[in-house]
Design a protein that fits this description.
heterodimer, A: about 400 residues, alpha+beta, 2 domains, 6-stranded mixed β-barrel, 13 helices, 10 strands, about 55% helix, B: about 240 residues, Rossmann fold, 6-stranded mixed sheet, 4-stranded antiparallel sheet
């Protein structure tokens, strides 16, 4: 029996009971479509979380001061980051003594009341060095960023984030050249940053950047740094840079026990890894839920095929009487089952991709369609056809022709 | 040529064992038209199953064209059925919702005959069984009972078998249509030299054959040739 004949027989058998075939296919369609749609949502979530983490800068390490403690072993802690332990000298030591460091930026930040032309807001003011922009992926859309010269000259200049511009500058006014007051002191706007979009707990668009020297002198009142941002040369060197910085700062701060360090080093790769772990668990969870519906669809196939075998017992007897072998009969029923699942698989893939695109277009959730779940879904649907079709097919093939012909 | 030598068939074992055939022997030469007749429970169906290679005897030999087919496996029996035997059953002869032509081609599909040859032979067999070309593309469920049996006869002819085995072929037909179908068998026997074995429980159906083997209680009661048989030669109805 040729392949063409097998498919002709399959077509005749399946089209003879169109309603039942369609409903069985529908079970597989729903299973496959949900696998693809849900996995694409999971993958999309993973991708968008990774992008937003990477938008704060690549291969980034953040050094923040430890907690301020009152004297004594069980002293009251004022919380991490409250201590004044990081200095300009620490920052310089990192950039000169640690290998594989491609950039170091100093930060002193605080929240202040800021007033513009007839408006005011309370926002984060970040005193930064010029190297902050490349390290933290901050781009300027209008004007220029803070320069090191402005920091040395203690210039009262400010770069505003887009949200801060909305809050402080009248609509339609060119922000560059405007005067704002931070904590009562006049600053000239020299630039506006490109919007990054809100992500995480702090909004990088609602920021005002000023030179770090100016911040230390006029606003903070001291020169202790609140953050040192370090960019490692490559993703592979972040761990080495992290370890070297810890060793260097422990030596500089005369601390022998690493557990009582007065600073902490946060590695962006660690954040990324833990976020990825969470989102891939989410993807697996969604995939598993969809997988269950696929399994139910597969059982639907088996159910239909078993019904078909029973209904067509006399036909099987007749076919055997006129010379069909066991292999002919089992192949026929197996091909019927596989055809159902493969048709269901193809329709399911199209619907799944469609749902994913529609969800993406609504803007609620970003979806990412990757080849893996599509190939997997297709493979699974063919496998379901083989697995769930095998039992009915072998039952049909092993029917005794005499009994099959007598079957009422 | 068919040679059946002292065939027995038992079902079950021990105390519940039932012997359906108690040692029957006969020879059917090529070109014969034989009726195997007996009431239900006589062993005629068991005989038919063994002759049709649907089943094997418990003891004894069955030579089909000088080949002993009494000890073959299921798969080997399927091959014999495909090449040497044509079946016409009482009912459910045709695949439902399938054209007449495809039904007749089915044995050739399993035999792996190519499409052009398969169609040519199916049309030839349909013509021999008295079907007109206008019906070739009709679905099997659009045919009358008599037409269905003639398509079944065409299918039984199409693989050029050594033996056509008809199991109560007129059982579901009215007398008039039954006569036409029996006439078709007679014509195939006389004009085409086909070997036909007709299984029936009705004496007046058996009368259409040239030879009647009468079976009762698993043994042959009589085996007679007779010339005074009923003859029909309806060509096209």
């Amino acid at each position: 029996m040729t392949i063409k004949d097998t498919f002709e027989e399959t077509y005749a058998a399946l089209s003879a009971n169109m309603t039942r075939s369609s409903l069985t296919i529908l079970g597989i369609v729903i299973g496959i479509a949900s696998v693809i749609a849900l996995v694409s949502i999971g993958e999309g979530a993973t991708a968008s979380i990774q992008t937003s983490i990477q938008s704060i800068g690549s291969n980034l390490l953040e050094i923040t001061p430890g907690a301020a403690r009152s004297p004594g072993g069980f002293g009251v802690s004022a919380g991490r980051g409250s201590a004044q332990t990081l200095t300009q000298a620490d920052s310089d030591a990192i950039s000169t003594q640690v290998t594989n460091v491609s950039g170091v930026a100093d930060e002193i930040s605080g929240r202040y009341q800021v007033t513009g032309a007839g408006t005011n807001t309370n926002t984060t003011v970040d005193g930064v060095s010029a190297s902050y922009a490349p390290i933290r992926n901050v781009a300027v859309s209008d004007g220029t960023f803070i320069t090191d010269a402005e920091s040395t000259e203690l210039s009262k200049v400010a770069v505003l984030g887009p949200t801060a511009v909305n809050d402080l500058i009248a609509t339609g006014t060119e922000p560059v050249g405007q005067i704002i007051r931070i904590n009562g002191q006049q600053f000239t706007v020299v630039g506006v940053t490109v919007a990054k979009g809100g992500s995480g707990f702090s909004n990088p668009d609602d920021m005002i950047y000023i030179p770090v020297g100016t911040m230390a002198l006029y606003l903070a009142g001291n020169s202790f740094l609140t953050t040192i941002d370090v960019q490692a040369a490559s993703a592979n060197s972040t761990t080495q840079v992290q370890n070297d910085i810890t060793t260097l700062l422990l030596t500089r701060h005369n601390i022998s026990n690493p557990t009582s360090a007065d600073f902490s080093v946060l590695n962006q790769a660690d954040i990324l890894a833990s976020a990825s772990a969470i989102t891939s668990t989410l993807t697996y969870l969604l995939g598993a839920i969809a997988g269950i519906s696929l399994l139910v669809g597969g059982i639907g196939i088996m159910n239909m095929m078993l019904t078909t075998v029973t209904e067509r017992t006399r036909e099987i007897g007749l076919r055997k009487a006129i010379g069909a072998k066991k292999s002919d009969i089992s192949r026929q029923f197996l091909v019927e089952a596989i055809t159902l699942t493969v048709i269901g698989g193809i329709i399911g893939i199209m619907i799944g991709v469609g749902i994913s695109l529609v969800v993406n277009a609504t803007g609620l959730v970003t979806t990412t369609i990757t080849a893996d779940p599509i190939l997997l879904a297709f493979g699974v649907s063919a496998a379901i056809g083989i697995i769930f079709g095998w039992y009915p097919a072998s039952r049909a093939a092993s029917l005794n022709p005499i009994e099959a012909l007598r079957y009422e | 040529m068919i040679e059946v030598k002292n065939i027995t068939k038992s079902y079950g074992s021990g105390d519940t064992a039932f012997q359906a055939l108690k040692g029957i022997s006969f020879t059917i030469n090529d070109g014969e038209f034989v009726a195997i007749m007996g009431p239900s429970g006589s062993g005629k169906s068991t005989t038919m199953h063994i002759l049709g290679c649907l089943d094997t005897p418990t003891t004894g030999e069955y030579l089909l064209d000088d080949k002993d087919v009494s000890k073959l496996s299921d798969e080997e029996l399927a091959d014999i059925r495909k090449d040497k035997i044509g079946f016409v059953f009482q009912s459910f002869n045709l695949l439902p919702r399938t054209t007449v032509l495809r039904n007749v081609m089915l044995p050739l599909i399993y035999a792996g005959v190519d499409e052009v040859e398969r169609e040519r032979r199916a049309k030839e067999a349909l013509a021999a069984a008295g079907m007109t070309e206008t019906h070739f593309l009709h679905k099997s469920n659009e045919l009358s009972g008599g037409q269905i049996q003639r398509v079944a006869i065409a299918r039984a002819l199409v693989n050029n078998p050594s033996l056509i085995l008809a199991d109560e072929p007129t059982g579901n037909l009215d007398t008039m249509t039954g006569e036409i179908v029996l006439g078709t068998f007679q014509r195939l026997n006389e004009q085409h030299g086909r070997t036909i074995v007709l299984i029936t429980h009705e004496p007046d159906i058996a009368e259409h054959a040239k030879r009647i083997i009468h079976i009762r209680d698993g043994a042959i009661l009589s085996d007679t040739k007779h010339q005074q048989r009923i003859v029909h030669h309806h060509e096209n109805i």
